[in-house]
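Progress against Task 2.4 (sequence-to-structure conversion) is shown through the following example record, which the project officer requested during the mid-term review.
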Amino acid sequence: MAVRYVAIGDSFSEGIGDELPDGHVRGWADLVAQGWANGLGETVEYANFAIRGKLVRPIVDEQLEPALALKPTHLSFNGGGNDMLRPRTSIAHIVSAFEQVLRRCDEEGVTFILLSGANPSPQLPMGRVIQRRGDDLSRAVNAVVADRPDVVRALNWPDRELSTPPYWSEDRLHMNSRGHHRVAARVLTALGVEPPTAWWSLPELPTVAVGARAYYRDHLGPWVRRRLTGTSSGDGREPKFATWTSVAPQAPGADTR
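Structure tokens generated for the chain above:
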């Protein structure tokens, strides 16, 4: 059966932080589609409904059914990262979203690809709070799928290497290209597809020193303003691939960095 893969989620699955020179946002899900096609030696149909800034419930309410309507063979889901940044976060609320996605995938005969997000807490203000919430969420979601060997697991939260600064963008919230490649390698491995060895740890990208004042002005400040005004970085945005796009195998040796 031909692979038809769709991703739903927030900025993590949209690919924020892995911007190409032409301004196009790529990210791990795009890389997975390409790596999957390369590994199979055949075209993979790929769609991506993920939109930056989304809380977990809007992801499920707005993206899940349109994604399933495409009749995919595989669906990946990650969410809750934006919820965990809010002062009051219910882990049970986030877990219920994962349970709903799993239930609907079961009903539609779709293979569920479960991802946990990478852990940004070592470099963030209130990092200890985010670490604790992430640990709690990981335990709770893992308990939901504990007896489900059919669920494909690509768990990034425990990856200590991925938590280090060389894998993250200046905003400290989104992975850079190096981080997205490492996540893509983990997903492909979970799918039984051999990723390029280099994807696990590409050469470090040039770093730009960002002082505390500039960080708060350019990154944390805008985020706080959106919270106060009830807006989101994803407001008005459409999915980048709301219908199937065909991803053909690349020639051997093609550069996907």
